[in-house]
Automatic annotation (TrEMBL):
<dbReference type="GO" id="GO:0016757">
    <property type="term" value="F:glycosyltransferase activity"/>
</dbReference>
<comment type="similarity">
    <text>Belongs to the glycosyltransferase 92 family.</text>
</comment>
<dbReference type="Pfam" id="PF01697">
    <property type="entry name" value="Glyco_transf_92"/>
</dbReference>
<keyword id="KW-1133">Transmembrane helix</keyword>
<dbReference type="GO" id="GO:0016020">
    <property type="term" value="C:membrane"/>
</dbReference>
<keyword id="KW-0808">Transferase</keyword>
<keyword id="KW-0328">Glycosyltransferase</keyword>
<dbReference type="GO" id="GO:0005737">
    <property type="term" value="C:cytoplasm"/>
</dbReference>
<keyword id="KW-0472">Membrane</keyword>
<keyword id="KW-0812">Transmembrane</keyword>
<protein>
    <recommendedName>
        <fullName>Glycosyltransferase family 92 protein</fullName>
        <ecNumber>2.4.1.-</ecNumber>
    </recommendedName>
</protein>
<dbReference type="InterPro" id="IPR008166">
    <property type="entry name" value="Glyco_transf_92"/>
</dbReference>
């Protein structure tokens, strides 16, 4: 199912997707929506079940994380009547419109997660990674490197909420889609709202934060709630790397043993500024990758130095891996409604590396700290990246 993005007549509210909620005392259909926070409108649910239409009042919960934009993510909750085990479709209307009961089929959503009422112990995917809000994206090399790294870490599925990208990036996405790793969700929110390109209205005015990143992340959480054992929420320029083992498959049992199961695991961010390309300390050496010079994008293996870590600011830009069935709502850098409290993962066990431009240097070259963890994957990463670039026609076969 794609994200449909339907507008409610008589309202500025946009609906993205609908999921059956099994975990609450009262069975509900949860519709992930985008709402103008100041708007006060009474909404009605039209639930189709067993050839009957059930109409009820909707409950609305606007998420507290909206970064001071006028629009924010919301949950519209529709009660499921007793005796309805498998609701099929749902529509939401405004009580302010006279024709609110018409055009049910055109304005309805197929309800997902209906067949997941029994607790599961096996899943199609162990790890799913959600890339939200891909827009104007041209960074081919880093995307391929990240997707190959994620596979080394144990990721089976990567979901890309895509607004637009270059032709070469699309070629890469098509390659991984055919391979079965990537699922692209068209994300056309800019057709409906003036989307901001930044994290705050002061940086980039608009109706909603960063191309609607938060509703996309929540949709991904619910979309893979019963398809993936764990879900990771981070971007293509971020990598969560274990420090004592080689993969997430090995890391998660360590985290469960140390912190408990069904927690949201929060990983400290470490900035790797792309403005610096420094050689590693001897006897280490950068691998020769001259063949990548004509490929668009960033070579993450050339950026191995991080800014000094500041413990009091560790909550800034952190990212998470969660059991999605233990979460009701998420934001960008943490969980809003977990069943259990979130924990910070000891940076000696795992940490996140964020490799991106940082603007005017905040630190001098001698203040940066060498991080060689990524280089440890290079012997496997380089041939894997070469193979993909050749298969997609971005690198000559003879290279």
């Amino acid at each position: 199912q794609t994200a449909q993005l339907l507008r409610i007549n008589g309202s500025r509210t946009l609906l993205t997707s609908a999921y059956l909620e099994h975990r609450t005392k009262r069975k509900e259909v949860r519709i992930i929506a985008i709402m103008q926070r100041s708007e006060r409108v009474k909404l009605h649910c039209h639930l189709h079940c067993r050839h009957q239409l059930h109409v009820s009042s909707a409950a609305v919960r606007i998420h507290r994380d909206h970064f001071r934009f006028r629009f924010g993510t919301a949950d519209i909750l529709c009660p499921v009547p007793s005796g309805c085990e498998t609701p099929g479709y749902v529509a939401v209307t405004s009580a302010a419109t006279k024709d609110e009961g018409r055009n049910f089929v055109l304005n309805s959503f197929l309800i997902q997660n209906v067949g997941n009422q029994i607790e599961q112990t096996t899943f199609p995917y162990n790890f799913t990674c959600c890339f939200s809000a891909m827009y104007d994206f041209t960074n081919v090399l880093q995307l391929v490197q990240s997707l190959e790294m994620l596979q080394f870490l144990g990721v089976n599925r990567v979901v890309v909420y895509k607004t637009n990208c270059s032709a070469d990036v699309q070629r890469v996405l098509d390659h991984y889609s055919e391979k079965g790793l990537v699922e692209v969700i068209p994300w056309s929110l800019s057709k409906y709202l003036n989307v901001s390109r930044k994290a705050s209205p002061q940086q980039s005015p608009g109706d909603i934060h960063y191309f609607g990143q938060i509703p996309a992340l929540n949709d991904c959480l619910y979309r893979f709630m019963y398809r993936s054992r764990y879900v990771a929420l981070h971007d293509p320029d971020e990598l969560i790397l274990p420090q004592t083992v080689g993969s997430w498959m090995e890391l998660l049992p360590l985290l469960k043993k140390k912190y408990g199961a069904d927690r949201c695991y929060t990983f400290e961010n470490n900035w790797i500024p792309m403005e610096f390309e420094l050689p590693p300390p001897k006897p280490n050496a950068l691998p020769a990758v001259d063949q990548w010079q004509n490929v668009s994008g960033v070579n993450i293996l050339a950026h191995l130095y991080r800014e000094p870590f500041i413990p009091r600011r560790r909550q800034h830009n952190a990212k998470i891996i969660v059991n999605p069935r233990a979460v009701f709502a998420t934001s960008v850098h943490g969980v809003l409604q977990p069943q259990k409290s979130c924990i910070w993962v000891d940076r000696k066990l795992a940490r996140m590396y964020h490799i991106k431009p940082r603007g005017p240097p905040k630190h001098k070259e001698k203040q940066l700290i060498y991080e060689g963890r990524l280089l440890g994957y290079s012997s496997h990463l380089i041939p894997a990246v070469n193979a993909v670039l050749k298969q997609t026609g971005l690198l000559p076969e003879a290279t």
